């Protein structure tokens, strides 16, 4: 097989409907072999049923979560005022929406998940590179969110049981009851994901409004403690709008983009169930930037209020809720945290890596097995260390994630939109020796673009509090712009390498 299969060959074995959606032609055998299983096969058009509301509810459920809350409250904790924090988050989500919609397009059109979509650019085997990178990032996120949910159970049980629970003996720096709470929440999530995607869709539909009401209740509680909403708006910025703010703004913006850079890659895992392009486009446009900005607004006001009430900002909502003496209020607040954390963690951090790990060995790893692998690795990553400090959480963890995944997004967008004009051959995405086989199943151009973009994006990043120093100090000036540097570098380099090889646009 040649290194670059001629893309101009006619595509057979698939049909294009009047609305632009594509599926395998009637009577065409389903893809089989070592690179296919039931979870990775294209969803038939009849099975693509998600509406605009389903996608909006998905985003409301994912955006209204404790980690999103700590994004905005963390910016208050490092010195911004409410206007600066909301501005930073709103802009970041408008920016990340663009690659989200571009990569999401392949879902409703072809019914394929992210790791299969990545085969078009990286190769049938090479797609395991971005899939595993994305999956490992999701493991970190799953661990962080599970730790947050475990905290909520720990504090809730502590209020109900008393000092014997709260003051239990410590193991590894935390009470053994905290570790037990972490394990219980871990098990709940694995049980839900085991029931499949339809259960997740139904859960997201009712979780979204429940969490929003919970956030409004927290705002009411904090404003009453502060003596009205005035003190919530009056907390000044420690940075002003001069050089101090802008020095913090750029790495903060990249971190906020990095928060959803994971979903900007694997959003086809969800949009593959979309009824139409309109459903996924409007659902995401209405669901992501609006709800993230609203939730950021609520969280920064509550955090500013905590600064006025307690003398310092309390950026962790679980720790803040634990300060109330009202048992009913605490119960409602912590149940809200649990529902919010379940909502985002299952949708964003178990579904996607489950498909990604399944792609590595389709015959041996099912969707459910991939989810279990994710859950186990999430514990081994030690998420309690990642979440222990807002500086490390926003600037180290999110900065590294955004820079690395931005490089993959650049390659996907360049290949699917600029080179192929959104034309794919469904059968060849699963077939050894087809047009996406390249050289031994790998497209070296995508690998080179990924490595080059990744080095420039994160090579100069600081790794505190995990470790001191920077891997490549000379690249430090680029570190504050990691996501943009990674995406731009990989997109341009992949285009240049592909066009230089004489490859034509098409399927």
Automatic annotation (TrEMBL):
InterPro entries per the UniProt record, alphabetical: NCS1 (IPR012681), Pur-cyt_permease (IPR001248), Uracil/uridine/allantoin_perm (IPR045225)
Annotated GO MF terms: nucleobase transmembrane transporter activity
GO cellular component: plasma membrane
Domain of life: Bacteria
Transmembrane stretches, start-end: 57-78, 85-106, 176-194, 206-224, 244-265, 286-310, 330-355, 367-387, 393-419, 440-461, 481-500
Pfam families: Transp_cyt_pur
Compartment(s) of residence: Membrane
Keywords assigned: Membrane, Transmembrane, Transmembrane helix
Membrane-topology annotation of the record: Multi-pass membrane protein
Cross-referenced Gene3D superfamilies: Hydantoin permease (1.10.4160.10)
The keyword DNA damage is annotated on this UniProt entry: no
Signal peptide per UniProt: none
Entry annotated with the keyword Transmembrane helix: yes
Family, per entry: Belongs to the purine-cytosine permease (2.A.39) family.
Database matches in PANTHER family: NCS1 FAMILY PURINE/PYRIMIDINE TRANSPORTER, PURINE-URACIL PERMEASE NCS1
Name the UniProt record assigns to this protein: NCS1 family nucleobase:cation symporter-1
Originating species: Streptomyces argyrophylli
Lineage of source species: Bacteria, Bacillati, Actinomycetota, Actinomycetes, Kitasatosporales
């Amino acid at each position: 097989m040649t290194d670059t299969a001629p893309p101009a060959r006619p595509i057979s074995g698939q049909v294009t409907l009047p609305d632009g959606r594509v599926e395998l032609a009637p009577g065409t055998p389903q893809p089989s072999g070592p690179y296919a299983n039931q979870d990775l096969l294209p969803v038939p058009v009849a099975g693509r049923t998600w509406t605009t509301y389903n996608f909006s509810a998905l985003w409301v459920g994912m955006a209204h979560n404790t980690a999103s809350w700590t994004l905005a409250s963390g910016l208050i904790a490092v010195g911004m005022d409410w206007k600066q924090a909301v501005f930073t988050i709103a802009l970041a989500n408008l920016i990340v929406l663009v690659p989200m919609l571009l990569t999401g397009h392949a879902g409703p059109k072809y019914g394929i998940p992210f790791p299969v979509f990545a085969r078009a650019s990286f190769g049938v085997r090479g797609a395991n590179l971005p899939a595993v990178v994305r999956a490992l990032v999701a493991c970190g996120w799953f661990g962080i969110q599970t730790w947050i949910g475990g905290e909520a159970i720990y504090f809730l049980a502590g209020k109900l049981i008393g000092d014997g629970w709260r003051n239990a003996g410590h193991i590894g720096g935390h009470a053994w009851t905290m570790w037990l709470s972490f394990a219980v929440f871990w098990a709940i999530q694995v049980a839900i994901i085991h029931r499949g995607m339809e259960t997740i869709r139904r859960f997201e539909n009712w979780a979204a409004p429940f969490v929003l009401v919970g956030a409004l209740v927290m705002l009411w509680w904090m404003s009453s403690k502060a003596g009205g909403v005035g003190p919530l708006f009056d907390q000044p910025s420690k940075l002003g709008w001069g050089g101090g703010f802008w020095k913090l703004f750029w790495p903060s913006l990249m971190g906020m983009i990095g928060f959803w850079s994971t979903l900007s890659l694997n959003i086809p895992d969800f949009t593959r169930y979309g009824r139409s392009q309109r459903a996924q486009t409007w659902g995401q446009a209405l669901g992501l930037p609006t709800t993230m900005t609203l939730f950021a607004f609520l969280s920064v006001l509550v955090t500013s209020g905590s600064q006025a009430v307690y003398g310092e900002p309390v950026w962790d909502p679980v720790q803040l809720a634990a300060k109330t003496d009202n048992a009913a209020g605490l119960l409602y607040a912590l149940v809200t945290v649990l529902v919010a954390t379940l909502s985002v963690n299952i949708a964003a951090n178990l579904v996607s890596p489950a498909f990604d790990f399944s792609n590595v060995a389709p015959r041996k790893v099912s969707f459910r097995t991939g989810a279990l692998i994710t859950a186990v690795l999430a514990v081994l990553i030690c998420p309690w260390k990642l979440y222990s400090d807002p500086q490390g959480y926003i600037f180290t963890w999110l900065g590294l994630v955004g820079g690395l995944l931005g490089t993959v997004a650049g390659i996907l967008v360049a290949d699917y939109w600029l080179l192929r004009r959104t034309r794919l051959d469904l059968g060849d995405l699963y077939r050894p020796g087809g047009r996406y086989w390249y050289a031994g199943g790998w497209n070296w151009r995508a690998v080179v673009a990924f490595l080059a973009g990744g080095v420039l994006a994160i090579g100069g990043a600081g790794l505190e509090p995990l470790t001191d120093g920077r891997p490549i100090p000379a690249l430090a000036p680029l570190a504050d712009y990691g996501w943009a540097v990674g995406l731009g570098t990989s997109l341009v380099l992949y285009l240049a390498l592909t066009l230089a090889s004489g490859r034509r646009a098409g399927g």
